[in-house]
Design brief:
The structure is a single chain. Strands 1-9-8 form a 3-stranded antiparallel beta sheet, with no helix packed on it. A 3-stranded antiparallel beta sheet has the order 2-3-4, with no helix packed on it. A 3-stranded antiparallel beta sheet has the order 5-6-7, with no helix packed on it. By secondary structure, it is mostly beta strands. The chain binds FE2/S2 (inorganic) cluster. The site of FE2/S2 (inorganic) cluster has 10 residues, from loops. FE2/S2 (inorganic) cluster binds next to loops. This is Non-heme iron oxygenase ferredoxin subunit.
Length: about 110
């Protein structure tokens, strides 16, 4: 595991995605929902737009462009037009730091 600090907890608002660069190649949308943290790759698998620009509904995030939603826990698409999952990553709090492990995407 190689967790990296991507933001601090005071930058995050409940149910509002926060785009965070983890590496030069990876940006994630961090979401806090009912006390749980999620880190989902910030790129829709359908049209390559930022998921962090969309809205959070329960444990899902909706792409603003064509309306596909993705499960924040698994990255699975929940409705068309997207058919491919988006990667999700381990995320944790370390003190006030939000940390993401970019090297070990979760698999389901
Ligand atoms: S670009 Fe996200 S659903 Fe089409």
């Amino acid at each position: 595991m190689s967790f990296r600090t991507v933001a601090t907890v005071d930058e995050l608002r409940d149910d509002t995605p926060l785009a965070c660069d983890v590496t030069d190649e990876l940006t994630v949308a961090i979401v806090r929902q009912q006390g749980d943290l999620y880190a989902i790759e910030d790129e829709c698998s359908h049209g390559k737009v930022a998921l962090s620009e969309g809205d959070v509904y329960g444990c899902s995030i909706e792409c603003y462009l064509h309306g596909s939603s993705f499960d924040l826990r698994t990255g699975a698409p929940l409705n068309p037009p997207a058919t491919q999952p988006v990667r999700v990553f381990p995320v944790r709090l370390s003190g006030d730091d939000i940390q993401v492990d970019p090297d070990n995407p979760l698999s389901f």
